[in-house]
Amino acid sequence: MPTPSFNIQSGSVSGTWPSKGGTFYWYNPTSSPVVLTNCGNFCTQDSYTVPAANSPSNGYLQVTLLTMPNANPYAFTDPAWNAPGMPHLQAPTMPDAEDDADTETDADREVA
Questions:
Q1: What is the DSSP string of 27-65?
Q2: What is the largest CA-CA distance in the chain?
């Protein structure tokens, strides 16, 4: 097993993490290749295709860290945040009752 390595399924790290500019291995224990994106803030490439565990590389892919990672706030993005169909917090769209008193009907005031 090449070290240091980062298991992309469990998040566990094997070996000692390298310093800036050093190398490590992504490890994919699954039976399908995995594409990792948004890595360009800390690695030399923005995306990586990590081979499956049953590939000739046994699921390992060597990666080089940047010598100057981007540590600024909000430097990382998560495309899952804008995934369609996912719930997101939104501002209420209903007007205040005081502002809408003129359009209130008997059905609005009726209590079950």
A1: E--SSS-EEE-S-TTTBSSS-EEEPPTTSTTTTEEEEEB
A2: 73
CA 21, 25, 27 angle in degrees (round to 5)?
A: 155
Alpha-carbon span 48 to 39, nearest angstrom: 8
pLDDT in tens, the chain (112 residues): 778 999 998 888 899 988 989 999 999 999 999 999 888 888 999 899 999 999 999 999 999 999 987 776 666 555 555 555 555 555 555 565 555 555 666 666 666 6
CA quadruple 40, 73, 27, 10: dihedral, nearest 10: -160
